[in-house]
Amino acid sequence: MGISVDKALGVHQYALAMQVERSRVIAGNLANVDTPGYLARDYDFKTALKDVASGVANMSSQDRLPDADFSSDLRYRVPMQPSEDGNTSELGVEQTQFASNAMDFQTSLTFLNLTLGGIRKAIEGQ
């Protein structure tokens, strides 16, 4: 019986991909914090991860998860303090979300490294 790398890594490879995409979106929000009428966007991370997790749980060892497509999970952000010019991007919120996303990325990357190290040790028989 062969090992399925997709199944062994679970949702973490998709979490990394989504965190990279989320960094791009939040950086766009930060770049447009002073643009009148700009509507800040962000991902519904929990919903996207639940969808991927259900796909991982239901797959057999021969199945492969499809490529990540998070476009349907991109939502407009509701501002805490609406501005008069219609811009919904708030500097403090965007900076906090960016920092939080960076920490989540590092955590996912560390977990993946540990998982791959465990797989390597199993293959080598250690």
Automatic annotation (TrEMBL):
UniProt name for this protein: Flagellar basal body rod protein FlgB
A Pfam family the protein falls into: Flg_bb_rod
Database matches in InterPro entries: Flag_bb_rod_N (IPR001444), FlgB (IPR006300)
Domain named Flagellar basal body rod protein N-terminal: residues: 11-38
This protein's UniProt keywords: Bacterial flagellum, Cell projection, Cilium, Flagellum
Compartments it resides in: Bacterial flagellum basal body
Annotated signal sequence range: none
GO cellular component, one term: bacterial-type flagellum basal body, rod
Species of provenance: Gallaecimonas pentaromativorans
GO terms (BP aspect): bacterial-type flagellum-dependent cell motility
Protein family according to the UniProt entry: Belongs to the flagella basal body rod proteins family.
Subunit structure: The basal body constitutes a major portion of the flagellar organelle and consists of a number of rings mounted on a central rod.
Role, per record: Structural component of flagellum, the bacterial motility apparatus. Part of the rod structure of flagellar basal body.
